[in-house]
Amino acid sequence: MNLAHLIYFLSFVSLIILADDPLGTPEGYLKYDIKKGASLNPGYEAVGYWNGSVFGWTEYGNGLPEYQKLFFFEGFNIRSVFQEEDGSYVSLSREVSVYRDLDTGDILEAWTNIYSNEENEVFEVSNDPVNALLYPGVGMHSSTNRHTSFSGNFFLDYPNPLQPDDYPLFSSGEQYLGGELFLTFTRSENLFNESLSEVGYIGSWSRVGPWLPWLEKSTEKGGHLYNAPYFKLRSVNDLPEDLYQWTVENYPEYLHPPRNYTKPNMTSWRVFKNIIDARRAAGEPDIQVPEQPKKGESREPNLDPELMDLLASLEDVSFYYEGTSYFVFEGQTGQEMFWMDGNLTTTFSKETNKTWRMNFSMTGKYSTPWPEKEPMSGKEWVNPEGNVISEVPYIDTESEILVSNNNCTSQEIVSDEDHYTILNCELVMGHNVYFLTLYVGADEIVGGVTEKKQFDDWLEIESKGFLVNRWLTFATPK
Predict the structure, then answer these.
(1) pTM of the predicted model, to two decimals?
(2) Distance between CA atoms of residues 153 and 326, nearest Å
(3) Is the bond preceding 264 in cis, omega lying within 30 degrees of 0?
(4) pLDDT one-digit tens code per residue, 383-407
(5) Mean pLDDT of 336-352
């Protein structure tokens, strides 16, 4: 893609909810969500692919989080959707993911734990099935000039399959607590073209959750953050060659979705439990660390200097953003606190041939959660602990960080014949983390931002915990 002609300007126009909104009815939303996420053709096998990172965070003496990237995380979901005679829809899918070495990109079978210095057996993700019965309902969505966005943020709290009494080394506690944050964009002209049964999507995914059981961290404070761009492929043949071959050798059935609806759905925790239970029943050790194959050559992460130099030449790259702020108290799952919207401005300046300084500022306002979105900045508010805050501030923050291929990468992809360059940045800033995933297209930039941060002082929250902020963002070309 020729990036040289792309000039982006600040958009002060909020994302549009059309007066005649095709997604504004439960039936309409379900139809187009299926068309985007899978297909209206029941024989179509949709492939959603992700490739990102897993971070660990720890809390030691001072009780403040420290972050470290642990490994890459890559995988795919394969899915089909069909309609029952009564008009309801059934989604059939399964998914597989691998963990990769940060230096070589090798698929990990064993990993030297940086926290314990012990060798861990690595358990890949192999969830089969991941099925669902789909019902009409209107979810969070918006429209830019050229894209339609779908947002789904799900904070989880359910009994942990790995109960502490039975699995003391592997269990994070009696309840599984975590959050899955999904954001997808699709071309509006394709989505609402009734001659098409399916369309592509681009998006970002983030997750906050407990320690992976195979790290044997038990109930130690902390956990994981996941971040990945994810997008729809045309077929499994478009998977990276080594991931495709690994799947053929280990999970060939995952190259197609299930044929029938079954339950319960499998999760990484349930799969792990089943493996451990089978080993115990056979009188085998719980953990069986294999010998890791010989390491491959080091791979330098890719960050396209042409893209970064273009962004630096623009001086200010400004976006509209909107999304939700969640509070997470220790031992509890996330809960909505505010809707946030405003303008995010980034400025890049070249430091060396391989480094750039990124300055970004956010201005905007706080409102009640979606869908009401009643402005709260400048007004009195009662915080989650019941304390009265005399005046909610307006959003006005600035930060800067040095970026390179150590914390930002780029990749070129094609979705529905449109070319995009992905800029994916994973920025550790003191005790906070900031994930930025942008899709730079020929006529619009769209993307997602996830921030995990300490409670702001003005919130006057005394309980231990943190904030998770999740926004979509976009800019329109001149």
Answers:
(1) 0.95
(2) 10
(3) yes
(4) 999 999 999 999 999 999 999 999 9
(5) 96
CA-closest candidate to residue 147, choices 415, 471, 456: 415
* Contact call for residues 171 and 218 (beta carbons, < 8 A): yes
Per-residue model confidence (pLDDT) at position 9: 30
Q: Which residue has the tokens 């995933």?
A: 437
| Angstrom distance (rounded) from CA 147 to CA 156 | 29
Closest CA to 37 of 145, 144, 149: 149
Q: Which residues lie below 8 Å from residue 119, measured CB to CB, with a gap of 6+?
A: 110, 111, 112, 113, 289
User: Rounded to whole angstroms, what are the CA distances from 112 to 22, 115, 211, 291?
Assistant: 51, 9, 15, 11
Distance CA 449, CA 434 (A): 7
- For the record, the structure tokens of 160 come out as 């942990």
pLDDT score, position 19? 52
Please give the structure tokens belonging to residue 387: 């304390």
Number of alpha carbons in the 13 Å side-chain half-sphere of residue 150: 26
The residue among 403, 452, 399 whose CA lies nearest residue 423 is 403
pLDDT per position as a tens digit, 16-52: 444 589 999 999 999 999 999 999 999 999 999 999 9
Residue % of the chain over a pLDDT of 70: 96
- pLDDT at position 14 is 38
Question: CA angle, corner 403, sides to 397 and 406, nearest 5?
Answer: 130
